[in-house]
Input
Amino acid sequence: MATNQEQQQNQAGRHQEVGHKSLLQSDALYQYILETSVYPREPEAMKELRELTAKHPWNIMTTSADEGQFLNMLLKLINAKNTMEIGVYTGYSLLATALALPDDGKILAMDINRENYELGLPVIQKAGVAHKIDFKEGPALPVLDLMLEDGKNHGSFDFIFVDADKDNYLNYHKRLIELVKVGGLIGYDNTLWNGSVVAPPDAPLRKYVRYYRDFVLELNKALAADPRIEICQLPVGDGITLCRRIN
Amino acid sequence: MASNQEEQQNQAGRHQEVGHKSLLQSDALYQYILETSVYPREPEAMKELREVTAKHPWNIMTTSADEGQFLNMLLKLINAKNTMEIGVYTGYSLLATALALPRDGKILAMDINRDNYELGLPVIQKAGVAHKIDFREGPALPVLDQMIEEGKYHGSFDFIFVDADKDNYLNYHKRLIELVKVGGVIGYDNTLWNGSVVAPPDAPLRKYVRYYRDFVLELNQALAADPRIEICQLPVGDGITICRRIS
Output
């Protein structure tokens, strides 16, 4: 069990990682992308939310700025209007989404922790897009199961983003594949899991990384084999797998 | 000037790079993505074209399989129908595009070298999509200027992919921004230029890499500053910058 001092050092180390965590060949290359193409274009509200989140102890969970930019563009490219997000934290990807949707766009956002969402909510409200968000506190599976009972929810979502508990991704997938429309998109976050998907068996890994790694490996295999979707696994952020429903 | 033996060694080295050239933290991670998410999904025709190209002396120029998969998905997501490609080589990204477009989709494809295109053409024909392609041999700028003059081509393209001479990208951009439709996408390939965008001044770089690096750096700054587009610089392949025209 880590001592108090160890825990503080861990947290300090993790704080330093935010903004410097990527799957790229060097942090220099990652900073180049951020400084050249991301930060100069980052909307004020997103910058503010990013800075707010940087002070939070769990900030390693946040969506990175390059990933936020990518999601925002993707949503505009597919003209998304009705979306869902599982896993909100302080709302960085939620804000990226809300800024991309039209004024009458809707986002069903779920997280087991309302406090973190409320930390970022004032920024989202100031940006004028909070009205698009329907936040539900609690686990997502019961909500999804309830939605599936009503046939009119089937195929009703343009885009669904999953950035939550990795040991449940396949359970989510079983439901989301019915809820997303044909031609619509599901995005699964963290599918390259800090690069640990290829770590040798004796590599030193953080406990939670090692614990969830098997679930991530299993997920990746399952998505690649699922004939109802076409996939694309992008090395953005911690790895996002885009799944386009084809039937 | 490299001796004959040095040249052969250079070529052998470059041949080995194909399929192993990425911007990621390790080749192991890149191979994981390819083996798990790309190769199992790669259409037969694209596999065949990739293998034909692997035998060609300039094969380092080819679009990688992960990039081909990404382009194919992107085109389907944006419902592209009328596209352009500048820089074809043996046609891997051209085939990825042709497979994504509907039956009546059209691609204007330009390259200074028809021989390489004709190397891949039989595979594209066998895939049943060659009828979508209008190939023009020669430099692209005169063709673009002609189209700009004619007026009716303004805003007529859904998607334009540029994978050609880096010292002309900004010259292409000046024209393409008029030819792509508002809401349409221009993709510029190789914008991270083998990671050399952050190489220190004394780093050993291949001559052509060093020569074109300044053009790439300049391009990246210009795209980031262009108010007519929104951008997203993805570390797929050698770096693709996706530009969505907004005005």
The domain at 27-245 of chain B is CATH 3.40.50.150 (Rossmann fold). The interface with chain A takes residues 22-26, 28-29, 31-33, 36-38, 40-41, 66, 69-70, 73-74, 76-78, 185, 192, 195, 197-198, 220-221, 223-225, 230-236, 241-242, 244 of chain B (CB under 8 Å). The longest strand of chain B covers residues 180-189. Chain B has a mean pLDDT of 94.
